[in-house]
Design a protein that fits this description.
Blueprint lengths: L4 E6 L3 E6 L4 E5 L4 H4 L3 H4 L3 E2 L3 E4 L4 E4 L14 H8 L5 H8 L3 H9 L6 H19 L3
Antiparallel strand pairs: 1-2, 2-3, 4-5, 5-6
Helix pairs in contact: 4-5
């Protein structure tokens, strides 16, 4: 699904998008922990590209396609479930460690792109490496 978004705006309750064909969609901020805990100034400090919205300060991403897909959690990708279960994991940081763009990592997580089996294994290996490093602290 290709979504042609012409306008994005945020208020204290919703993230809004407007498509080129005049369709307005919203996502509730309350559904995203990092957005829910942000100030209005932080919420309004976002970047957009052709696949979605990124809040660099909050390390949060929403894909445009997600505004149109209201699937149940069981339909979400394995990576989506993993990163949703552990919001403390910095998606941009993991992408940097893997040497890939943050937007590609976000696409893998939201399910708009599917990583190859080898890439999936790289991501899991990097997460395990992070876990081992955390265990060595202290």
């Amino acid at each position: 699904m290709n979504v042609d978004v012409v306008k994005v705006w945020v208020d204290d309750k919703f993230v809004h998008i407007l498509t080129a064909d005049g369709v307005e969609q919203t996502e509730a901020i309350a559904g995203y922990e990092r957005l829910r805990n942000a100030t209005l100034r932080q919420l309004q400090n976002f970047e957009t590209d052709n696949i979605g919205i990124h809040w660099p300060e909050l390390d949060e991403d929403l894909s445009y396609e997600g505004f149109f897909k209201k699937d149940a959690m069981e339909d979400k990708s394995e990576l989506y479930k993993l990163f949703k279960a552990f919001p403390e994991i910095n998606v941009a940081g993991i992408a940097r460690r893997l040497g890939i763009k943050q937007s590609l990592m976000a696409a893998y997580i939201c399910g708009t792109k599917k990583p190859s089996l080898a890439r999936r294994e790289e991501i899991i290996k990097e997460l395990h490496s992070l876990g081992r490093a955390l265990l060595e602290v202290g």
